[in-house]
Amino acid sequence: MLKKPMSFLTYHASFRRLAPAQLLKNVMAAEQAGFGAIHVSDPSEKDQREFSFTWLATALRSTKLPFTVACTPNLRYGLPNIAREMATLGELFPARFDLAISKTDDLPENGNNSTNQMPPLEETASFIRKSLSGEYLTYDDGNIQDKVKVHTPPRIPTLLFYELSSVNEVKGVAKWADGLIADGDDLDEAEKIVREWKRYAGASKPFFIKINFSYGANPEEAVNSASEVPRDEFIPAQNAGENIPPYSKIENKGKIKLFTSIADLLQWIEPFKKMEASRIILNNLHDDQEFFINAFGLYHKAYEVVVPV
Predict the structure, then answer these.
(1) Cα separation of 123 and 73, whole Å?
(2) What is the DSSP letter of 191?
(3) Which of 14, 16, 165, 288 has its CA 20 to 30 A from that of 104?
(4) Can you tell me the distance from the alpha carbon of 131 to that of 271, in angstroms, rounded to the nearest whole number?
(5) What is the dihedral of CA 237, 300, 24, 15, to 10 degrees?
(6) d(CA 259, CA 269)
(7) b/e 173-196 (16+ beta carbons within 10 angstroms → b)
(8) Which residues, including other chains, have CB under 8 Å from residue 95's CB and lie 6 or more apart?
């Protein structure tokens, strides 16, 4: 079966902005609109909001799309719980769920300000993999001790991605990560990251690129309705075919794009498609997600008529 032309486009679902029921509704609508995958960003410990792993089982059951979920180990979830949740989801929904490990600036990876510290990323990945293979492990983070054994390892291995924004991290991450999620706010930086990833990780390991933007009926509305983003973070609205990189403009102080048409958005991500990313994650920062999903669905429907599968 041929792959759908736009199936690499991924809808970004965030608990930071929406309650679980509305988020589930949006994810189901995104599938109907033509998105090929879902990426879920989990709130940090300081937000103390909904538990994404519980929500994921319902979301996976309600759709047929593959999911990735960003997770910060030892801040919101301990490693034993992560391994158990991954094993459960991997058994129930084979090959449809992967984890994206992330870290936060709020608690340094090797800091000394808390008894509950994140272990080095490579150790985190190793612990999760050993757990999912059925090994019996002892876990001690300085705050709790736990005996861990996954009795039903997933039939298809769950991939461990890493969310990264700096090219300086690529070499170390390539040693342990199954895949990479690169920040696409700066095209030049993203190209450097992808180039280094291919150099150190090889051609077989996948990578995704995440694009942040606000999509609205007009530029002013797109800015005003992205309530969690300061105005000076935005750059001028993008037009299809624009040759000057938006982040090089003199008046620009930010890196977040504004779009008022799906055609312009897709034109802007063309350079990322040429990098051969497995998925491009579209993170719309606008508070009204339904407007964007509906617009994408209308464009996708028209696109499939012109470019049939």
Answers:
(1) 11
(2) H
(3) 288
(4) 39
(5) -20
(6) 12
(7) bbebbbbbbbbbbebebbbbbbeb
(8) 66, 156
- Reported as a pLDDT band with limits 50, 70 and 90, residue 206 is very high
Q: H or E stretch including 68?
A: strand 67-71
CA dihedral 132, 174, 70, 189 (to 10 degrees): -170
Give which of 92, 83, 26 is closest to 287, Cα–Cα.
26
Q: What is the pLDDT of residue 108?
A: 44
**71 beta partners:** 101
Closest CA to 13 of 22, 5, 2: 22
Q: Which two tokens stand for residue 289?
A: 């997600």
Structure tokens at 120: 């080095």
pLDDT at 150: 84
Q: DSSP letters along 124-153, please?
A: HHHHHHHHHTT--EEEE-SS-EEEE--SS-
Label residue 113 by pLDDT band (50, 70, 90): very low
C-alpha pair distances (Å), 198 with each of 169, 190, 206, 275? 13, 12, 9, 10
91 residue type, one letter: E
- 9-306 maps to CATH 3.40.109.10: no
**197: Cβ contacts below 8 Å, ≥ 6 apart:** 170, 174, 180, 182, 205, 207
DSSP letter at 247?
A: G
Residue ranges per structural domain of the chain:
9-306
Can you tell me whether residue 31 is helix, strand or coil? helix
d(CA 39, CA 208): 10
Nearest to 228 by CA among 15, 17, 59: 17
How many other C-beta atoms are found inside a 10 Å radius of the C-beta of residue 199? 11
Give ∠ CA 181-187-190 in degrees, rounded to 5.
Answer: 35
